[in-house]
Structure formats: structure tokens, C-alpha cells
Design a protein that fits this description.
Length: about 280
């Protein structure tokens, strides 16, 4: 995989395309026409935090190390089943990291705003929601103008983003991200077993899924969250703020490109680390 320096691409302005109910179909049309040429999809989500830290099924004291991924999944499921997404950010790129220009002088990424979450009524982690509010998310506007998740799921299924072996997904610490997407695409609560969930992730997103948080485990001196890892890699945030899904999806792509260049190659191909979601790696058992 070639690496394109993010600094080079800053010569052309990058614009976040904000997606609401009124422009959802037209934006998916643009994505559908772009994905064959830009099959690397970097994704981030924003959701209302974690409200359940343990469940009855995760506190039985049995072989904790062996069952850790299953325990993580049960807590994830308990939260995802109860909560709703706030934003999804998508950055499409080609193998060299180039972004679509849609025939203009700008380069584009996408940020979908959802109406499903009602901050006045729905369960949420207060600190998480206040952080998102400080970072610019307008929960009232989301409720009034945001995308309905059912319509998003319908359009995503026909977009070429999912069930497409030519597409590679790039993420950071993405178990919850994929949890919310699987819930949205199936329009039902998550499966009761981790194995069933991972099967659905493979059905929708294929085997070319790269979780940068998982890759960091094999990169000497790298650790921490997306911002810390990016700083260590000397990768700057090009547009937007942290905890905005569009901005974070682009930063995730750039961190992935730099890690690919600096830590992986012919003798250690990055492809062998695909298909693992950090924290849900059953191969570690």
C-alpha cells in the first residue's frame, strides 16, 4: 500500500459534507458514485457514552482472562441495545489516500447527523453528552433535522459500502462503532453471542477491516487514543475538532496511512492484521 502524505493533500481544501434528512438521498448518490474509485472507507461514530459498565452475565468470576472478549461484548451489547447513534463520519479514499473531489476544487468527507437520540428523554452518560455539546454537536438540531436511522440503513445497503468485498474499512477502537452499525442495518438488538456478532460484521463489512487501535499493539512506542497516537505519528488534524465524527474519520485514515508506512511492509504485511476489532479478539484467548 502506498502512503500519501496528508500534508500534501492540504493544498486543496477539505470540506465536511453535513448530511441531514433533507439531503440524505443526494449525498448517498454521491457516495454510491464514488465508492468504486475510493474503496477505503474510514469510519467514526459519536454516541451518548456508556451507561452500563457490567451485566449479570459478566460478573460470574469464571475464567476472566479466557472470557474477556465475551464479557466486553456483553457490556457493549447492553449499551448499544439501549442507546442511539448521534453521528457517523465517513472518509472515502483510494489506495494512495486521495479523497473524492466530486468534480470540484475541493476534497470531501461526510458527516451524518441522526435524529434518533433525544437528549431530554433518552439514557446517556452526562459527561459524554456535555463533551459532545462543547465540541459543537447541536442535539436540538439533530432531533429536528437529523437522519432517521431506518432510512439511513436502507440507503447504506444499496450504496456499495456494505456487502462489497472490494471495500476496506479503517477504524479506531471500533467495536462500539460496528455495534451501532450492525444494530442499524439489521433493525434489531445485537445477537446474544460474540461469535454471531462477528459473523454479522463480516457479512456487512467483509474481512478487510482495520482497527488502528489493534494495529497499535504491534507498533513500538505507540499507545493511547486517536489523538495521542496521531501526535506520536506527527499526523495533524486537518479539519474540524475531536469528537466530531467526520473529523475523526479523516484523522483515523491519516493515522492508518502513517502506521502502514512506518511499521508494516513486505516482511510484515498489514493485511494479516485485518478483521480484528480491538477488545473483541477471540484469537487472544
Amino acid at each position: 500500500m502506498c502512503y500519501a502524505d496528508p500534508a500534501h493533500k492540504r493544498r486543496r481544501p477539505i470540506v465536511i459534507r453535513s448530511v441531514w434528512s433533507h439531503n440524505l438521498e443526494s449525498e448517498f448518490h454521491l457516495i454510491r458514485s464514488s465508492v468504486d474509485f475510493f474503496p477505503f472507507v474510514s469510519m467514526d461514530t459519536e454516541f451518548p457514552g456508556v451507561v452500563i459498565r457490567t451485566t449479570a452475565n459478566t460478573d460470574d468470576g469464571v475464567d476472566f482472562k479466557h472470557r474477556q472478549p465475551e464479557r466486553h461484548y456483553l457490556v457493549l451489547k447492553a449499551n448499544v441495545d439501549r442507546l442511539n447513534l448521534i453521528q457517523i463520519g465517513l472518509t472515502l479514499s483510494d489506495r494512495d489516500g486521495n479523497l473524492p473531489d466530486l468534480g470540484t476544487e475541493n476534497l470531501y468527507i461526510w458527516e451524518f447527523n441522526f435524529r434518533d437520540f433525544d437528549v431530554a428523554r433518552d439514557a446517556h452518560a452526562h459527561d459524554s453528552v456535555e463533551l459532545l455539546r462543547r465540541q459543537g454537536i447541536d442535539f436540538e438540531r439533530n432531533r429536528e433535522c437529523g437522519v432517521e436511522s431506518t432510512r439511513f440503513a436502507e440507503l447504506m445497503m444499496s450504496s456499495g459500502l456494505v456487502c462489497n468485498d472490494s471495500v476496506a474499512w479503517v477504524t479506531f477502537h471500533s467495536a462500539y462503532d460496528f455495534g451501532y452499525l450492525v444494530k442499524m442495518l439489521t433493525q434489531r438488538i445485537l445477537p446474544g453471542e460474540l461469535g454471531e456478532f462477528l459473523d454479522l460484521v463480516r457479512v456487512f463489512f467483509g474481512s478487510n477491516v482495520y482497527d488502528v487501535k489493534h494495529l497499535v499493539r504491534y507498533c513500538e512506542s505507540l499507545y493511547g487514543g486517536l489523538d495521542r497516537v496521531s501526535q506520536a505519528l506527527n499526523v495533524d488534524r486537518v479539519i474540524g475538532k475531536s469528537h466530531q465524527a467526520g473529523s475523526d474519520s479523516l484523522l483515523t485514515l491519516h493515522a492508518f496511512q502513517k502506521i502502514t508506512q512506518d511499521y508494516f511492509g513486505l516482511n510484515n504485511p498489514i493485511e494479516k492484521y485485518a478483521g480484528v476489532l480491538y477488545g473483541l479478539d477471540v484469537s487472544d484467548n
